[in-house]
Amino acid sequence: MEYRIVHHQLQFVKPAKTSRNVFKERHIRYIVLTHNGVTGIGEAAPLHLLSIDDVDEYDEKLEAACTQFCEESFDFNFNFNLDFNLDFNLHPFPSIRFGLESAFLDLKNGGKRRYFDTEFVSGKPIPINGLVWMADLEAMYEEAVTKINSGYKCIKFKVGQHDFDAECRLLERIRTDHSAFNLEIRLDANGAFLADEALAQLKELSRFDIHSIEQPVAVNQWDDMAKLSRESKIDIALDEELIGVDVFKDGEQLLKHIRPQYVILKPNLVGGFSVSDEWVKLCRKHHIGWWATSALESNIGLNAIAQWVSQYDIDMPQGLGTGSLYSNNMDSPLEIRNQSLVYGKTAWDLALF
User: Fold this and answer.
1) Residue 119 burial by CB count (10 A; 0-12/13-18/19+): exposed, middle or buried?
2) At which of 51, 79, 108 does a domain end?
3) Which of 23, 30, 14, 31 is nearest to 51 (CA)?
4) Ramachandran area for residue 111 (φ above 0: left; ψ -120 to 50: alpha; else beta)
5) Fewer Cβ in 10 A, N or C end of the chain?
6) What is the pLDDT of residue 14?
7) In the prediction, which pLDDT does 82 show?
8) Residue 283: what are its φ and ψ, rounded to 5°?
9) Domain limits for position 78
């Protein structure tokens, strides 16, 4: 087995803002594995200021991990499990594990960008939410209305950057015309609220029939997050809280302590599919809801995540509508159609590889 690393700089159509940072471009590394004339492709890309592996030595570690992976000469019955993480010491580098898993699964399944055997690649759609990125409040309102008018029944707003009262007025404008019966509203604060103010803010936000809010306060405040999960009138979803947590050692402790209503899974940020599968097991054990969200991957990574999540019996909208954010994303079968992500007939443009 041999490997190559291909670098690519994705350009955003317009800056993508959160309460934490602003994205204008995205540096992607693709892991290209080759064996007996078959090629598998996986995406490895830490997210700036968010991934635990957004470090200077990333490319050195990526080369070392790929070299070791190929030298081990695994047979095609190899399963990704805890031993994989320990043997390669990839817990601190979740996006590398995600990329290696994806590339190997693609290779194992014939090099056709088919990572899992699911109905998604046969045309079964995955429902998605409409994402409203941070901008000035009028622009956010107009984007939300455009998405609602196009048919989205679930809209997600990034909040926490503007004046709180002004954000409430934005949500009030939306709710004036669209009741909770017809429109689900999700919020994502990216940890922007202060712990001693969050409960009062969530009480105020609950007037607008909010489905859930992701990561209302910053990470590593388990007691404060647990209090919000107990007392908030809005359901709490953990997002960044999962990043850097060893699910096999500490995942259950985290969920039992905080007891959130939902968990958001981003395979690129938490450590790949086997780690994400373990989070799903724990969620089921403790009766916690979950959905998957992309972390600004290119169509290669987005396709792998969509196929992974489609293995499960999902009925909630997923956060998988980010492929159109880029001006130079590769052509792929992925399409957004009728507020769903669909695997269509367009051929993959693999000229980059």
Assistant:
1) exposed
2) 108
3) 23
4) left
5) C
6) 86
7) 46
8) -60, -45
9) 2-108
List residues with catalytic annotation.
158, 266
For position 75, what pLDDT does the model report?
Answer: 55
Q: Given the DSSP bridges, would you call strands 22-35 and 340-343 parallel, antiparallel or unpaired?
A: unpaired
Q: SS3 for 112-155, per residue?
A: CCCCCCCHHHHCCCEEECEEECECCHHHHHHHHHHHHHCCCCEE
Q: How many CA atoms lie within 13 A of 152 on its CB side?
A: 23
Q: How many domains does the chain have?
A: 2
301 burial via Cβ count (<10 Å: 0-12, 13-18, 19+): buried
CB-based contacts of 299, cutoff 8 Å, min separation 6:
323, 329, 330, 331, 332, 334
For residue 220 the two structure tokens come to 């590593």
Name 334's Cβ contacts closer than 8 Å, sequence gap at least 6.
299, 302, 303, 306, 323, 341, 342, 343, 344
CATH number at residue 66: 3.30.390.10
The H or E element containing residue 201 is helix 195-205
Q: CA-CA distance, 213 to 238, in Å (whole number)?
A: 9
Both tokens of 142, joined, read 């107009």
Q: What is the pLDDT of residue 322?
A: 79
Tell me if residue 10 falls in helix, strand or coil: strand
Query: What is residue 19's predicted lDDT score, i.e. its pLDDT?
Result: 61
353 found inside a domain: no
pLDDT along the chain (353 residues), means of 10: 96 81 91 95 92 96 92 60 60 94 93 95 96 92 96 96 96 97 96 97 98 97 98 97 96 98 97 94 98 96 98 95 88 96 96 94
Q: What are the φ and ψ backbone dihedral angles of 156, each rounded to 5 degrees?
A: -115, 130
Q: How far apart are CA 53 and CA 59, in angstroms?
A: 10
- Inter-CA distances, 61 with 32, 68, 108, 138, Å: 16, 10, 24, 44
